[in-house]
Amino acid sequence: MKYHITTYGCQMNIHESEKIAGVLKSCGYDEESEEEEADIIVFNTCCIRENAENHAFGNIGALKKLKKSKPSLMIVLGGCMAQEAGKAEYLKRKFPFIDVVFGTHNLNELHSLIEQKRNSKKAVISLREEREAVEDGIVPVRKSYPNAWVNIMYGCNNFCSYCIVPYVRGREKSRSAEDILSEVRSLVREGYKEITLLGQNVNSYAGSGMRFPELLDQVASIGGNFRVSFMTSHPKDFSEELVAVMKKHKKICRRLHLPAQSGSDRILSLMNRRYTREKYLSEIALLKREIPDCEVTTDLIVGFPTETEEEFEETLSLVKEAGFASAFTFVYSPRTGTKAAVMDGQIPEEVSKKRIMRLVECVNDQTRQKSAECVGAETEILVEDFDGKKDCYLGRDLYGRMGYFKSDRDRVGEFVRLKITKANGISLYGEEIKE
Ligand code: 5AD
Ligand code: SF4
Questions:
Q1: Residue closest to 29 by CA, chosen among 37, 137, 100, 192
Q2: Protein residue whose Cα sits closest to atom 5 of ligand 2
């Protein structure tokens, strides 16, 4: 029996799909890269913005034919969309050929749900309000070598007014530091070269009486040739201790992902972000004072309800003032159940479209300029993959910059020093420096 998994959304979901694969593998299933050849197709969904949902709907709808021609095919839907209030029932109506729906808190039930469905004509739906145990005991099938994702916490308590995550992922729950450290130690022993600590808000980690900076310090103190990165940090919980730990360890990436969302204090307050533009900028100033070469990346939203042209321009000016190396930019998308979805002053689509185009251009200009400044410099990348189109190996350096180079043998998983010879957008091209 063979399974195929399609994943939407963030790193958390990508790692969760590795766990779904782990559950299926432990039950004797093998992975299949072609949907048509699989006996089970799993969709691990995302609902953070409407377009993420529409994308999944399109792909699920396209399976109707396949299911008709192959009735034994099992179609399973999991992840954040399944967990949305009332969504499972809606999905059952819209796609009556779905066999199993499971939520974000019951991954390890997946196999028994599939078995239940084999003995029943009706769709099997299983959703839970909250995660019961923090440890799921699942051994993931890791697909991201040389990087390994490690969850340190689940859920979010912040309730930013636009965001559906706290509703579909539940309240914050931290794993114990002992479990995290032992997972990292074994990954390093297995040869993983980058450990990425994952959580919706890693800075509010509170496992084993430990705060995040201490956990990060302990992870980075583990011996071996590997890097450590982490995401995502919330500016309201940013601390001097975190900067001190980053500075102490050369293993920790020189890149902090710190979502700003907006450059306007009025919008930040409506978003319930609990910091001001000034506080945000003072955090970056502290970071750059202590670690001058550290890069900052961010997430930005345009078209939040009532956002004026002037307030949008404050987001544009923040890009320059904060000196972001790059940014993920989003058009605000109303999510049912969130506070912002029922606010007055929703922004027309054509206005948001104009704003996002201006923002993307501003971010890209800055990224391009930063890349161009790298030409002539040296850097060290961790090789992640081979790009057949470019006929190059590629990887990222400690600053998160993507570097490409040519080699006549497989280099994935190696640290390679490059002399940067050319920049194209966010990509850097280089020649290997052979010692
Ligand atoms: N609309 C647009 N962007 C959103 N994000 C979260 N919720 C929404 C929404 N409703 C963005 C935020 C967050 C990133 C993961 O997704 O910028 O940091
Ligand atoms: Fe959503 Fe805010 Fe939590 Fe991030 S911190 S997951 S944006 S509620």
A1: 37
A2: 158
pLDDT tens-digit readout, 171-190: 999 999 999 999 999 999 99
228 C-alpha vs ligand 2 centroid, how far in Å?
22
In 95-228, alpha helices (H): 110-118, 165-169, 177-190, 212-220
Whole-model pTM: value is 0.96
pLDDT at 136: 82
pLDDT at 12: 94
Mutate to test the pocket of ligand 2, among 47, 104, 156 (most ligand atoms within 8 A of CB): 156
Return the SS3 of 110. helix
Residue 175, helix vs strand vs coil: coil
pLDDT of residue 394: 98
Could you tell me which of 348, 416, 411 has the C-alpha nearest to residue 385? 411
Span from the CA of 159 to the centroid of ligand 2 (angstroms): 6
Q: Which ligand is nearest to the CA of 299?
A: 1
User: What atom in ligand 1 is closest to the CA of residue 335?
Assistant: 10
**Shortest-distance ligand to the CA of residue 274:** 2
- How many helices (DSSP H) and strands (DSSP E) are in the chain? 14, 19
Nearest atom of ligand 2 to the alpha carbon of 201? 5
H or E stretch including 33? none
**Nearest atom, ligand 1, residue 232 CA:** 18
As a whole number of angstroms, the distance between CA 380 and CA 314 comes to 35
- Does residue 201 line the site of ligand 2, with CB under 6 A? yes
What is the tens place of the pLDDT at every residue in 195-252? 999 999 999 999 989 999 999 999 999 999 999 999 999 999 999 999 999 999 999 9
In this prediction, the residues of the chain whose per-residue pLDDT falls under 50 are: none
Distance, CA of 57 to CA of 98 (rounded, Å) = 12
